[in-house]
Amino acid sequence: MVDVRTWLAVYLKGLAMGCADAVPGVSGGTIALIVGIYERLIAALTAIDPDRIRRTVAGVRPANLPDARAALLEMDAPFLLALGAGIATAVVAVLRAVDHLLTTVPVATFGFFFGLIAASAVVLYVVVDLSTRGRKAAAVAGFLAAFLTSGYASTALGNELPVVFVAGAVAVSAMILPGISGSLLLIILGQYDFMSAALSTFVDSLGTALLSGGAETGAVWEAAPPVVVFIAGAFVGLFTVAHAVRRALEAYRMATLAFLVSLIVGALRAPVVEVSLALSERGETWGSAFPRFAAAALVGALAVVVLDRYAGTIDY
């Protein structure tokens, strides 16, 4: 018998994770720790492999149905479906709001993101040990990778589908890391505002098509490519990037942490670059915009401090 309350609780925990995943600087993995499902999430994600997927697909034949059900349970599929539904609901809702805010108040929005990112870096550096040359080198490499990419990606990478695919593969790796935000990685790659707008457009066109009884499907097909390609990249990332990061943490824990946390520090350049671009388009200067940026950054930083107080020390 299905325990509706149990799966509703998992869905609500997914909602909380999705809200965190949708904003840079806050990690869905941290929320998973707070609500007590982190270890189960890791086990379920790393249980997904081509063999179990093949067994599941083979369940279309009645003779293979028992083995397909077993494969689904091995991957904890009911848990992932309930959690994923909650995450998807929150991401769509939050990114729609973010898309509007990026259009109307970009300075304050990116200022808020700056505060989230900065406070996250301060909180996470508590668990980083830089006592060896290798760890220091990893920290410098992480900082430079994010700092240089943040300035380059927003103007040079563009939003072609191959870039979107890679962004999806990289962003999904953050699902298994407390403290590292997938949205932050999208900002570093210059894809955050683009994907926010793309997802909002896709959801709007899908809603219009459903309300029209399928008469307005053309807009859905036009809006679908970036969303579908991003999801495909995320799916591939589950088998590549996420597993690679996990293995790196197991084999070179402190060096990997040093790299990842320094990545956050280097990413502080990204919201500053985005604000500079927005100010240029609006004919404003930093002098007039800085008070808004700083106030929003303070709010973002306080949000992370409060979250960290409830999360306690993050245990990788």
Structure description:
The protein is mostly helical and 316 residues long. 79% of the residues lie in helices and 0% in strands. The protein has 16 helices and no strands. It has helices at residues 4-21, 28-34, 38-47, 50-57, 65-74, 77-104, 106-124, 133-156, 161-172, 182-188, 192-211, 218-239, 241-251, 253-266, 269-282, 286-311. Helix 1 (4-21) runs parallel beside helix 6 (77-104). It is globular and about 70 Å long. The mean pLDDT is 84.
Overall geometry: globular
Question: Into which percentage range does the β-strand content fall?
Answer: under 5%
- Average pLDDT works out at 84
Low-confidence stretches: none
Tell me the distance between the termini.
Answer: 35 Å
Give the tally of β-strands: 0
Main sheet?
A: none
Rg calculated over all Cα atoms: 20 Å
H/E series: HHHHHHHHHHHHHHHH
Which range best describes the helical content: under 10%, 10-25%, 25-40%, 40-55%, 55-70% or over 70%? over 70%
User: What's the total helix number?
Assistant: 16
Q: Name the structural class.
A: mainly alpha
